[in-house]
Amino acid sequence: MTVMTQSLQAMPGATPYRWWALIALALAQFLVVLDASIVNIALPAIGSELHVGTNMLGWVITAYVLPFGGLLLLGGRLSDRFGHRRLFIVGVAGFSVASVAAGVSVSGDWLLVARAVQGTSAALLAPAALALLTKLFADPQDRAKALGIWGAIAGIGSAAGVLLGGILTSSLGWSSVFFVNVPVGVLIIATVPFLISKDAPSKRTSLDMPGAATVIAGITALVTALSGAERVGWASPQTLILASAAVILLSSFIFLENRAANPLMPLSIFRNRWVTGGNLAMFLIGGATTALFFALSVYMQQILHYDAMQAGLSQLPMAGALFAIAGVVPAVVKAFGTRRPLAASLLLLAAGLIWLFFAPSDAEFAIHLLGPTMLIGVGLGGAFVSGTEAAVHGVADEEAGLASGLVNTSQQIGGTVGIAVLTALSSARTEGLLEQGVAQPQALTSGFAWVFLGAAALAILGASIVLIVIPALKKR
């Protein structure tokens, strides 16, 4: 054994195969992101075969998102407490087993339980994966490159869901959208122990269970309120009660964290302006992108009459631009720091969304959609990478899991808030135009256009916050 290898193995989490390890970590994150969208195309087939009604089909998505978003902070803390590699492997194993269970579901209830286990497992593996990345790549330049690869692979997961969902469902049936996770999960579990050395658990002896209980309940109440608001009404008793409960529970969480001996989320972490600015940016990025992918997919299929596969293929240029720019961002960050590339990426994202706002009801892809979606891909690639880097900058190793769980939580809650608010705005716009006698295609197109414009406003707000909150120039 060489002296270099001995020194690497002496470092917690270090490995001479760290770039190969990065691929395994990024693939796991790809599965987590992919599974939030790939199921959408399969929902009609699931409903038909399992005899599941429309309302319950919505819970096939919610059953995954609720535990995922609600448990991310606890998952990050658990990985700090018991070891990032251990929790990562446990999360991938649980995700793979739950994917098999979902694929062989014989009833709607069975499927919902499997989806909930998938979401819980994702909440364990996602923060552990990002924490492992930050520990494996301690050098700022190497970390920037690693985050570029991470952001590219994970970002493509969002765009690939519609495409893969359409191909798999039409060719192999709805079960295949779950079974596709299994070989990737098995490969990751088999290789990670050889690629990443075991890291030492934290010296913390206890977990903040009161804090964990209140934040899980608070986030669950918030996500449930926002997810159901469009269906039952923003002023309905259900929405108001759940929203009030979320405010009370999350306020209680902050109160408890100020007094806990070993808090789940030490509020002192927000003294780091990079963490604060990065999380605010990722919250707004999550809101803009979740609403964008939903509205763009429905616009293409309902207004332009693309089938599922055409809708997926039409997003390949966006995914290609995202992948390409994510590889360039590390060099830009090295030259200019994180603040300006992140703000510029958000403004490019906003510009693409504003361009998309003008797409008509009879849009031609090459003329009206190709340009704005590629510009959006450039903005997303830069924003995902630089935003994630900002959110974990300057965090101590013992809080790497917490910071990673926090950035994932910010993005997930941002997505929930964004799609709830912007789709409500879209529906109000469409209904108003229909009442005025505007033809349905034009009214629907105008409604979707307001989603794109609202998402652009979120991106512009994010750029403004980044420039105010994150310190001026800090070359990496």
Question: Can you describe what's shown?
Answer:
- The chain is mainly alpha-helical.
- The protein folds into 2 domains: 197 residues, Growth Hormone, Chain: A (Up-down Bundle); 210 residues, Growth Hormone, Chain: A, CATH 1.20.1250.
- It is built from 18 helices and no strands.
- The longest helix is centred in the last third of the chain and has 36 residues.
- It is globular, with a radius of gyration of 21 Å.
What is the fold's blueprint, element by element?
Layout: H1 3-10, H2 18-35, H3 39-50, H4 54-82, H5 84-103, H6 108-136, H7 140-172, H8 176-179, H9 181-195, H10 209-232, H11 237-259, H12 273-303, H13 308-313, H14 316-336, H15 339-357, H16 365-391, H17 400-435, H18 440-469
Question: What count of helical segments does DSSP give?
Answer: 18
Query: Which superfamily, in CATH terms, is the homologous superfamily of the largest domain?
Result: MFS general substrate transporter like domains
Molecular shape: globular
What string gives the helices and strands in order? Answer: HHHHHHHHHHHHHHHHHH
Unreliable sequence segments: 1-14
Q: Indicate the structural class.
A: mainly alpha
Main beta-sheet strand count, sense and barrel state: none
Using the coordinates shown, work out and report the CATH topology of the largest domain.
Growth Hormone, Chain: A
Distance between the termini: 33 Å
**How many strand units?**
0
Seen as an oligomer or otherwise, the chain set is single chain
Mean pLDDT: 83
**CA radius of gyration:** 21 Å
Which CATH architecture of the largest domain would you pick? Up-down Bundle
Query: What's the structural domain tally?
Result: 2
